[in-house]
Amino acid sequence: MTTRLYYAEPYRTSFSATVVSCAPRDFGFEVVLDQTAFYPTSGGQPYDLGSLGDARVQDVVDREDGAIAHVVDRHLPPGARIEGAIDWTRRFDHMQQHSGQHLLSAAYDRLFGVRTESFHLGATSATIDLGREVTSPQIRAAEDEANRIVWENRPVLVRSASAEEAAAMPLRKKSLRTGALRLIDIEDFDLSACGGTHVAHTGAVGVI
Ligand SMILES: [Zn+2]
Fold first, then answer.
1. What is the ipTM of this complex?
2. Are 183 and 158 in contact (CB under 8 A)?
3. What's the gap in Å between 196 CA and the centre of ligand 1?
């Protein structure tokens, strides 16, 4: 299990860690650390780029065994202490898009009862797949509502709850996970179970 620093500190851009393992792959090496601030591709949010010591990070994978694997361009010896640095421009863009997605999905849900089935964040655009067709006026209304919450600069809080506690909370989407849930709480607007990284206040999303 890799300790995920981005859960508690999404604004952290550098960290120290110990190399647990380093295995050759078709291209480069797959490195596991004892802890990391690198976000792996997960839940619609793409992986971070950056560096581990002199090595460039080219992909970050959330492995089924609970480890986060960093795909890098050179060997890092197990046991070595290394400094990690996140490409903050890319990561912050993902945090803005991801937080904006929460706002837009919540707006569709609150205004029209339309559910978000899935979403995708990319370098140039973000897309949301809705549960049913919406009209142009509805799209404008949802965007206006999401932007209103941006301009109010509301706090975005991270909370945790057991699955039983969460079942009694007004989550936008029921979570099927068991054990502790990580909840993203946009004050008086949206409460969602999510493992991604988000801005601290809605104003940082920018215009939707
Ligand atoms: Zn999220």
1. 0.99
2. yes
3. 5
